[in-house]
Amino acid sequence: MRLRQTTIGRSIFRSPDRRTERDQAAGHWSNFWLHIYPVKVRRRELHFGYSWYLGVASTVLFGSLVVSGVYLMFFYVPSPGSAYGDIQTLQTQVAFGQFIRNVHRWSAHLMVIAVAAHMARVFYRGAYKAPREFNWVIGVMLLVLTLLLSFTGYLLPWDQLAYWAVTVGTSMANFVPVIGDEVRDVLLGGDQVGAATLLRFYVLHVALLPLVLVGMLMVHLWRWRKDAMLDQGGEGGER
Fold first, then answer.
1. Tens digit of pLDDT for each residue in 46-74?
2. What CATH superfamily classification does 47-228 receive?
3. CA separation (Å) from 20 to 14, 23, 143?
4. Which of 1, 77, 215, 230 has the fewest beta carbons closer than 10 A?
């Protein structure tokens, strides 16, 4: 490729020509997107039957939630006086509003199913065993974060169904050992579901929980890469 041989090309393409396996590995590691994947993967691990692509599906659905959620944020104010009206306006007067809200809702449902199915498949295949114990714990935390995202988004429409569902859900926090009362106070921001609760659920749903989930997902992918590399060197060795 002639561009790579020019001064400008060499300044852009920092990886060497991929002539040997070592050069290919160096190019892989130097790529921002590719470095999270193992340099070598067994062919059978790329087949659909190996993982059903449930991890990929969960990540794609999370991306769909982020994109559709950002669009919805343009038309929603987390206030008891306007939240329900904003949802009605979004569904009836905003271009593609009903469609985007349905995409967001169904992506949330499907993400919960996909993450739970992914965890179940990992468990029944015994893929949580050494050397993957740490990544299994990260996966459990990702499942909890997914459920919390679904729960915190439930109140935002501010209708009767959401109000009473969250009232019952936050009341259950009292049964958490030792810190139950504190957890309930943090979620409610008062004695009952109100303006402070809506604001806290909104901040948790659109800012705090997504940021934590992205960070945990990066750690999850990093550990998956490291564990896969241990397996590559361990068909007859470390496993």
1. 788 888 999 999 999 999 999 999 999 99
2. Cytochrome Bc1 Complex; Chain C (1.20.810.10)
3. 16, 5, 41
4. 1
